[in-house]
Amino acid sequence: MSYQKKKILVVDDSRLQRMALKNIINDMDYVSIIEEASNGLDAISQFKLLNPDLTIIDLIMPKMGGILAIEEILKINNDAIILAVTATEEEESLTEALEKGVKEIIQKPYKKDYVLNLIDFYLRTSSQKSVLIVDDSRMSRIFLKKILTKNSYELIYEAENGLEAVNLYKKFKPQLVTMDLDMPVMNGIEAIDEIINFHSEANIVVVSAMEQKHYLTEVKEKGAKVLIKKSFKPNILENDLKPYL
User: Is the pTM of this model over 0.70?
Assistant: First the structure.
């Protein structure tokens, strides 16, 4: 597979750790620039200058730690791909990093193949069309998947309820979400609310059998683009979806 040349920002207060990561990344011939920063403040400045395709950041650093730097970077570019590195196994810190928008956490010491595969996955998938299909009906998910695959969506994530949808959205931030309303654990209205609170520009299309007018009003108030009536006639559903694909 051919790649456009990519830029990576490596942030760690340890020069040895930065060198270790750079030595791993140097094996990736489609990475043209690897910039460094030694703390969170420098990371923000370098991010603004470089606009990297991927940022790898330590969580514990002087001047400004990784968590605060991640918050500031995502204010600059809410679609930034950030991987965190750390030696800590403290669950609270790791959970906070993921909640802030980190895609993955890499534990030190590094395992070369794991790091390479992870970086490759996120750099490769960042240029592919992605969608999250949320529906408790397996048949509905299969039906939607066929339509979306036909319309060039290559990365298709699936969730059976709203809670799974929220977690998947925070991890992958897909370009499109199709959301059912009536689901167990967490319904579609609640999931839309959580996703929009996390990312106000989320592209959510509700596909549901529940088409009453008050539902249309509510989903739009929550931030969804439209409510489309669920149909198992491919041409009808595809035509309804087309403006939002």
Answer: no
Residues 6+ apart with CB under 8 A from 168: 132, 157, 159, 174
Secondary structure of the chain as H, E, C letters: CCCCCEEEEEECCCHHHHHHHHHHHCCCCCEEEEEEECCHHHHHHHHHHHCCCEEEEECCCCCCCHHHHHHHHHHHCCCCCEEEEECCCCHHHHHHHHHHCCCEEEECCCCHHHHHHHHHHHHHHCCCCEEEEECCCHHHHHHHHHHHHHCCCCEEEEECCHHHHHHHHHHHCCCEEEECCCCCCCCHHHHHHHHHHHCCCCCEEEEECCCCHHHHHHHHHHCCCEEEECCCCHHHHHHHHHHHC
State residue 70 phi and psi, 5-degree precision: -60, -45
What are the structural domains of the chain?
6-125 (3.40.50.2300), 130-244 (3.40.50.2300)
Q: Tally the residues of the chain.
A: 245
**ω before 62 within 30° of 0 (cis)?**
no
* Phi, psi (rounded to 5 degrees) for 100: -75, -20
CA pair distance 237, 135, nearest whole angstrom? 15
Q: What angle do CA 3, 8, 13 make, to 5 degrees?
A: 160
Residue 24's nearest CA partner among 89, 85, 66, 79 is: 85
User: Per-residue pLDDT tens for 203-243?
Assistant: 999 988 876 667 777 888 888 888 888 876 767 777 878 77
Whether the Cβ atoms of residue 172 and residue 195 lie closer than 8 Å to each other: no
